[in-house]
Automatic annotation (TrEMBL):
Domain of life: Bacteria
Taxonomic placement: Bacteria, Bacillati, Actinomycetota, Actinomycetes, Streptosporangiales
Record key words, sorted: 4Fe-4S, Iron, Iron-sulfur, Metal-binding, Pyridoxal phosphate, S-adenosyl-L-methionine
Gene3D superfamilies assigned: Aldolase class I
Residues of the Radical SAM core domain: 100-324
Protein name per the record: Lysine 2,3-aminomutase
Matching InterPro entries: Aldolase_TIM, Lys_aminomutase/Glu_NH3_mut, rSAM, rSAM_sf
C-alpha cells in the first residue's frame, strides 16, 4: 500500500475514517476501497521495485525518480488538458489555471483549492496532487479570468474545480466568485466538489459555514444559477445525518445540487448501487446528472468497466427509477473530442454495434448526432472503438480520401 501511495496521492480525514468506512467489512468495504490505495492498483513490477526501495531505506530523491517513471506511463493529463484546453492571451501566452474546451464553459483551478479533504483512489486529476509543478493546473489571478470571460461572450458558465474548491475558506473563495457576478453574459457559476461526501461540516459546523451559505445566496440573488456539482460515488456517503443536513443547508440558499460520479470496478459496479444512490439523491432534492466512464489515466486498468457492461449497469439502474431521476446521463466518456454517451447496443444490417452520441464536443457540429461503432465486449474507452457499418473513420477523426464517418444522416433513415 505504501508503494502505491508513493506513486499516487493518498489522503484521508477523520470523518471518512470514523463515519463512512465499515471497518468490519474492510478491505471489501466500498468507501475503504474508495480512499485507501490497493497493492494491485499498479503493475506488480512497479510495486515490487518501489517496495524494495522503501525496504532498503532509499532516499527521497531515489523514490521520487522511480515514482515519476511510473507516473509518466499513466497518462497524467488525459483528453488534451495540457495541449488543447489551455487558452492563450493575445501575446500567445498560456493563461495559467484556466481551461476552455467547450465554448460555453470555462474551467478555473483556484490555487488554494488544489487539494481535497480526502483523495479518491480513481481520481483522474491525481497529477494535481503529486508535487510536480509541471503537472499542476493552478492560478490565483482572478483578474485574468474575469478579463478572459468578459472578452468571450459565448462563455455562459464558469466551473471552479480542482482539487476541491470547497477546501477553501469563505474569505478566499468569495474573492474568486464575487468579481464574476458583474459579468452580464455569464449565466451560471458551477462548483465541482466532493465536500458534501467527505467533509459536510464545511456547510454545517465549520466556523465559516454560515458565511459560505451567505455567499451562495449572493450568487443566486445576482441572477446567476449556482450549480453545486456534487461528487457522490456510493449511497453509503449519504447515510450520516450530517451530510443530509449539509444538503438541506446548501439547497436553502437557492443553489441547485447536481450529482455525478464515475462507474468504478469494485466500488459501484452494480445497478442496485446506482439505483439506490439516484433515488436517495432525488429524495433529498438533488438532481442526478452524470454516470461517467473511468478516464484513460492513472490506474484505469484496475478500475475500468468495459463499455458494454457499463451500459447494462446504467440501464439496469435507469429502468428502476422514476422520471425525476432520469435526468442522469451516461455512461459518458469525457475524452479528447468531447463527452460521448453510450446510448445502447443494437444490430443494424446484421452487424452488432454500439450506438453513441456527443453530449458536448470541441466541434459543435458533432453535438447530438448519433453514430455507430463496432461492438467490442472488451472496449473500455472511446479510443478502443472502431468504425462500424462500412465507415472508414469515426466522426472526430480525419477521414481518408473518399472515406465516410459513422454519423447518421437523418435523410437516409
Amino acid at each position: 500500500m505504501q508503494a502505491v501511495a508513493t506513486v499516487l496521492p493518498f489522503r484521508v480525514n477523520s470523518y471518512v475514517v470514523d463515519e463512512l468506512i465499515d471497518w468490519d467489512a474492510a478491505p471489501d468495504d466500498p468507501i475503504y476501497r474508495l480512499v485507501f490505495p490497493q497493492a494491485d492498483m499498479l503493475p506488480q513490477d512497479d510495486v515490487s521495485r518501489i517496495s524494495d526501495l522503501l525496504r532498503s531505506g532509499a532516499s527521497r530523491k531515489e523514490l521520487n525518480e522511480a515514482a515519476n517513471q511510473v507516473r509518466a506511463r499513466l497518462n497524467p493529463h488525459p483528453a488534451g488538458q495540457m495541449d488543447l484546453n489551455v487558452p492563450k492571451t493575445g501575446n500567445e501566452e498560456p493563461i495559467p489555471g484556466v481551461q476552455h474546451k467547450y465554448k460555453e464553459t470555462v474551467l478555473f483551478f483556484p490555487k488554494q483549492g488544489q487539494t481535497c479533504h480526502a483523495y479518491c483512489t480513481y481520481c483522474f486529476r491525481w497529477a494535481q496532487f503529486v508535487g510536480d509543478a509541471d503537472l499542476k493546473f493552478a492560478s490565483s489571478e482572478i483578474d485574468q479570468l474575469v478579463e478572459y470571460v468578459r472578452s468571450h461572450p459565448e462563455v455562459t458558465s464558469v466551473l471552479f474545480t480542482g482539487g476541491d474548491p470547497m477546501i477553501m475558506g469563505e474569505g478566499v473563495i468569495s474573492k474568486y466568485i464575487e468579481p464574476l457576478l458583474e459579468i452580464e453574459h455569464l449565466e451560471a457559476i458551477r462548483i465541482g466538489t466532493k465536500a458534501l461526501a467527505y467533509w459536510p461540516q464545511r456547510f454545517v459546523t465549520d466556523p465559516d459555514a454560515d458565511d459560505t451559505l451567505r455567499l451562495f445566496e449572493k450568487v443566486v440573488a445576482s441572477g446567476k444559477n449556482l450549480a453545486f456539482m456534487a461528487h457522490f460515488s456510493h449511497p453509503n456517503e449519504m447515510r450520516p445525518e450530517l451530510v443530509q443536513e449539509a444538503v438541506r443547508r446548501v439547497r436553502s440558499t437557492g443553489a441547485v445540487i447536481r450529482t455525478q460520479a464515475p462507474l468504478i470496478r469494485t466500488i459501484n459496479d452494480d445497478p442496485a448501487v446506482w439505483e439506490s444512490m439516484w433515488r436517495t439523491h432525488v429524495r433529498h432534492g438533488m438532481v442526478p446528472y452524470y454516470m461517467f466512464v473511468e478516464r484513460d489515466t492513472g490506474p484505469q486498468d484496475y478500475f475500468a468497466v468495459p463499455l458494454a457492461e457499463a451500459y447494462e449497469i446504467f440501464r439496469g439502474a435507469y429502468q428502476k427509477v422514476s422520471g425525476l431521476a432520469r435526468t442522469v446521463r451516461g455512461p459518458s466518456m469525457s475524452a479528447t473530442p468531447g463527452k460521448v454517451c453510450v446510448d445502447g447496443v443494437t444490430e443494424v444490417a446484421g452487424e452488432k454495434v454500439f450506438v453513441l452520441h456527443f453530449i458536448q464536443a470541441r466541434d459543435p457540429e458533432l453535438v447530438g448526432r448519433p453514430f455507430f461503432a463496432e461492438y467490442d465486449e472488451k472496449a473500455a474507452w472511446l479510443f478502443d472503438l472502431k468504425p462500424a457499418l462500412g465507415a472508414t473513420h469515426l466522426p472526430w477523426e480525419v477521414p481518408p480520401t473518399g472515406g465516410t464517418d459513422g454519423l447518421v444522416d437523418p435523410t437516409r433513415l
